[in-house]
Structure formats: structure tokens, C-alpha cells
């Protein structure tokens, strides 16, 4: 799900206080929610700065696990898989 969002409003792990994430942070959180246990990688969900979006979401109280994965091919190396670990409830998604 790569739906473009202006913002996403969620509650985190039963805390009644809503939190609003905007722009690419909203996009990243929306993708993490949709991916579930499978998680997201920059390969599957291209975005220019996944690590920064995850950093900002963590700062906003969202628990996200980073799993390092190796990949082969002509440009072998590793990449991150991000998995949402904090239960969130979506209150509102605002499209641009």
C-alpha cells in the first residue's frame, strides 16, 4: 500500500491521546501498518529515506524493529526490514 497521505492520526498501544504523523512519516507508518509481520524494506516499498522516517516514528512513540537482511545479486549486500511492533489504532487518514 503506497497510498500518499497528508497525515495519519493514530493511538498508540491503548494510550487514548491521538498522535498525528505527516508527510512521508505518515506514508511510512501507513505502509508498516499494511505490511503487518512481513514488514517493509526500501526494496519493496521504495522511499528516499526509510531510516529517517523510522527514526522520527520511533521518536513519536512507535516501536519499530530493524532486521538486517542479506541479499545477493550483482550488488550483494544487506538491507533493513522494518517491522511495526507497537499496536496502533488508526483514527484518521487524510489524503492530500
Which helices and strands, and how do they pair?
Layout: E1 7-12, E2 19-22, H1 23-35, H2 50-59, E3 64-71, E4 77-84, E5 88-94
Antiparallel strand pairs: 1-2, 1-5, 3-4
InterPro entries: wHTH_alphaproteobact (IPR054382)
Domain Winged helix: 20-92
Organism: Bosea caraganae
Task: Characterise this structure.
Helix content is 24%, strand content 34%. It is α+β, with helices and mostly antiparallel strands and 96 residues long. The protein has one domain (7-94). A three-stranded antiparallel beta sheet has the order 2-1-5. Pfam families: HTH_91. Residues 20-92 form the Winged helix domain. This is Winged helix domain-containing protein. InterPro entries: wHTH_alphaproteobact.
| Major sheet characteristics | 3 strands, antiparallel
Strand content: 25-35%
**SS elements, strand count:** 5
Low-confidence stretches: none
N→C terminal distance = 16 Å
Helix content: 10-25%
The neighbouring-strand order within the major sheet is: 2-1-5
Label the structural class.
alpha+beta
Shape: globular
CA-based gyration radius: 14 Å
Written as H for each helix and E for each strand, in order along the chain, the element string is EEHHEEE
Mean pLDDT: 93
Total tally of structural domains = 1
Number of helices: 2
Amino acid at each position: 500500500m503506497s497510498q500518499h497521505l497528508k497525515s495519519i492520526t493514530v493511538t498508540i498501544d491503548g494510550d487514548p491521546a491521538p498522535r498525528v504523523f505527516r508527510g512521508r512519516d505518515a506514508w511510512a507508518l501507513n505502509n508498516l501498518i499494511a505490511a503487518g509481520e512481513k514488514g517493509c524494506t526500501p526494496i519493496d516499498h521504495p522511499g528516499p529515506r526509510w531510516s529517517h522516517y523510522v527514526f522520527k516514528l520511533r521518536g513519536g512513540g512507535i516501536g519499530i524493529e530493524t532486521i538486517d537482511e542479506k541479499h545477493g545479486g550483482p550488488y550483494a549486500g544487506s538491507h533493513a526490514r522494518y517491522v511495526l511492533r507497537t499496536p496502533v489504532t488508526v483514527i484518521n487518514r487524510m489524503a492530500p
